[in-house]
Write a structure and sequence with these properties.
Shape of chain A: globular
Largest sheet of chain A: 7 strands, mixed
Largest interface: A-B, 31 and 26 residues
CATH superfamily of the largest domain in chain A: P-loop containing nucleotide triphosphate hydrolases
Distance between the termini of chain B: 20 Å
CATH topology of the largest domain in chain A: Rossmann fold
Number of helices of chain A: 7
Structural class of chain A: alpha/beta
CATH architecture of the largest domain in chain A: 3-Layer(aba) Sandwich
Strand order of the largest sheet of chain A: 6-7-8-3-9-10-11
Distance between the termini of chain A: 24 Å
Strand content of chain B: under 5%
Order of helices and strands of chain B: HHHHHHHH
Strand content of chain A: 25-35%
Largest sheet of chain B: none
Number of strands of chain A: 11
Number of domains of chain B: 1
CATH class of the largest domain in chain A: Alpha Beta
Oligomer: heterodimer
Helix content of chain B: over 70%
Structural class of chain B: mainly alpha
């Protein structure tokens, strides 16, 4: 059953067309990688799917709910890892997550579980500012799974994640519908059976295991 | 989703961050004390004219300290890109706004706790419950408005310039009523009760208006 259905998603920044009529259908539990050069529109597409950005035109449905009119409700089902980690540097890793537990209305126990999942259990008491860039990225990923989201939107999550990026991502993606953007084709191929390739904001094809279908 | 839990979580987080970094309160406290020192040398203040001049100095210093305090509430979140993460949760934007406003209010109240005794020391004005009550009552409404405009301008590059331009005109009623209340509390003739009632009315009006607007300002 289709979990994410996007029709003719278009977004303009002024006169610049960032995304041009992109269609996307994703089944429940399916993993899709979005590939493309810098400026191809990957981040714009992911932000729209995560409901962080309203498209100029087009339709988005997630789990049968309208992606624009029911955004607040949908955010309880979506986990989003954006380009910037967006952590509170003065708070410890655990405090960062516990704060978001309150916002997601879930138990603080989830903070420890999420840290365990991303391999940061030993660093829980360290201030976010004292963590390496890779650890901060793991913390941002942990924050995205606190509320056990059904849809995970990951914008270049492998950036500075380290050698075990695929293992960490594999653990957090398990059992969820995932849209992931990356420049690492090998990682995309390993984690996502389906691929969408963007060029200049347009979809130039979808592929299964990177065999592009035009 | 419990909005009270969300609001307190946001306030707790902001206060904890400030406690760890000590970025704002020491600088603001220093600023208000310096403003008093400058005023002390700039005006010929004695026991006769202190009740009429001191309230003006108090509100000038508070207004500028408030602009800095409220300006940082959302600017810091935007700079570290954490506001988007907060808004990506299902938590109510009104609760998030209320939490931020409460935290900024607490920080300003800490500065006031430094300023009011310092003013009493410099100018010999009474440090009474009536003065404290007037300042606290004005702070609530000023915080609601200040945080609202801080949220609006946070995404604009010239926010430091725009925030005073938007906020100061709407703070004028608080300065007028607050000034009158403090003057009266310091011994000048005037209706303290009327000024306090006016401050309360402004508080209710602006807290309600900013709560209604918060949804549209924060929910991009």
């Amino acid at each position: 059953m289709s979990f994410v259905v996007a029709n003719a998603l278009t977004h303009r920044f002024g006169h610049e067309v960032a995304l041009d009529s992109v269609d996307l259908v994703l089944d429940s539990g399916e993993h899709m990688a979005v590939l493309g050069e810098n400026g191809a529109g990957k981040t714009t597409l992911l932000r729209i799917i995560a409901t962080a950005l309203r498209p100029t035109s087009g339709k988005l449905e997630i789990g049968g709910l309208d992606g624009f009119h029911e955004r607040r409700r949908l955010r309880g089902y979506i986990g989003f890892v954006a380009h910037a980690v967006g952590l509170y540097p003065a708070l410890s890793a655990v405090e960062n997550l516990e704060f978001f537990c309150d916002l997601y209305d879930v138990s603080h126990v989830r903070a420890d579980e999420a840290l365990e999942t991303v391999g940061l259990a030993a660093e829980g008491q360290k201030a976010a500012s004292d963590l390496s860039r890779g650890m901060q990225q793991r913390l941002a990923i942990a924050r995205a799974i606190l509320h056990n989201p059904r849809l995970l939107v990951l914008d270049e999550p492998d950036a500075s994640l380290g050698a075990d990026a695929a293992d960490v991502l594999g653990r957090v993606m398990h059992g969820r519908t995932v849209v992931l953007s990356t420049h690492d084709h090998a990682l995309a191929s390993r984690l996502c059976p389906r691929t969408l390739v963007l060029r200049h904001g347009r979809s130039v094809g979808t592929a299964t295991h990177l065999r592009v279908v035009r | 989703m419990n909005p009270v839990r969300v609001a307190f979580a946001v306030t707790r987080k902001d206060i904890r961050s400030e406690w760890r970094t000590r970025e704002m309160v020491p600088a603001l406290a220093q600023f208000v004390v310096l403003a008093l020192v400058i005023a002390n040398f700039g005006f010929q203040i004695d026991s006769r004219n202190a009740p009429s001049i001191a309230p003006g100095i108090l509100w000038m210093a508070l207004v500028f300290a408030g602009l800095v305090a409220f300006g940082r509430t959302f600017a810091a979140e935007r700079e570290q890109a954490s506001l988007e993460a907060v808004l990506m949760t299902p938590a109510s934007p009104v609760a998030i706004f209320a939490g931020k406003a409460m935290a900024a209010t607490i920080l300003l109240v800490v500065c006031e706790a430094v300023m009011l005794p310092a003013m009493s020391l410099f100018f010999g004005t009474p440090f009474s419950a009536a003065v404290v009550g007037a300042v606290l009552l004005a702070t609530i409404g000023m915080a609601a408005l200040g945080c609202m405009f801080a949220a609006i301008v946070a995404r604009i590059r010239a926010r430091e310039l725009l925030l005073p331009l938007l906020t100061l005109p709407l703070w004028i009623p608080f300065v007028i009523a607050g000034g009158q209340a403090v003057q009266s509390a310091m011994g000048l003739s005037g209706g303290y009760d009327n000024a306090m009632a006016l401050l309360l009315d402004f508080d209710i009006l602006f807290v309600v208006l900013t709560s209604l607007a918060a949804r549209f300002v924060l929910d991009e």
